[in-house]
Amino acid sequence: YPFAVTPEMSAFAKEATRGCRSGKERLTCLQHALFDRDGFEFVYAAHATLSADRAFAEQRGNCFAFTALFVALARAVGEDARFVAVPAAPGVGRDAGESLVIVTEHVVAAAFEPDRVHVFDFQQGSDTWARLHPLEDRVASALFHSNRGGRWVRQGAAEAGRAELELAVRLAAEWPPGWVNLGV
Length: 184
Fold this sequence. Notes:
By secondary structure, the chain is an alpha+beta fold. The chain has helices at residues 7-17, 24-33, 52-58, 63-76, 137-154, 158-171, 176-183; strands at 43-44, 60-61, 81-85, 91-94, 101-104, 107-113, 116-120, 126-129, 133-135. It is built from 7 helices and 9 strands; from the N terminus they run ααβαβαβββββββααα. The strands form 3 sheets. It has a 5-stranded antiparallel sheet with strand order 8-7-6-3-9. A two-stranded parallel sheet has the order 1-2.
């Protein structure tokens, strides 16, 4: 389960949002706390598709890991943050020297208001975008397993990769990138 929250994470989120009002301000305080150079400093790691609890413990990860961490921490303090896919065509990546092609999507965390969406990503603030594609937790979980499966396949562990990719398509049969990656 990529969104699990440990007691330490819950305490961190409560401390980070103490004194912040509800809504966007609380989420912005939480985002700033994740990049506090004197405390917690989240570092981008392109191939680190981690669950929220591992991303918190290791203080690193890719866009999925950051989003899982942010969503989990926001929910721990009662804020409704969700996974959203950035409005762009999925990326198709090929590692140097490999013939392997894997489909990827960029995801961010978002909070929805009646007239706007606030996006929380690696930037030290939030952006407001008009058009995003919300992902149900089930599809976000499929993305987690698809990323992990792709990584296993790239490392030459085809059976481990296939198990992750099969789980991805069982979780979200309607999500095309999962099927493409399983086919690879």
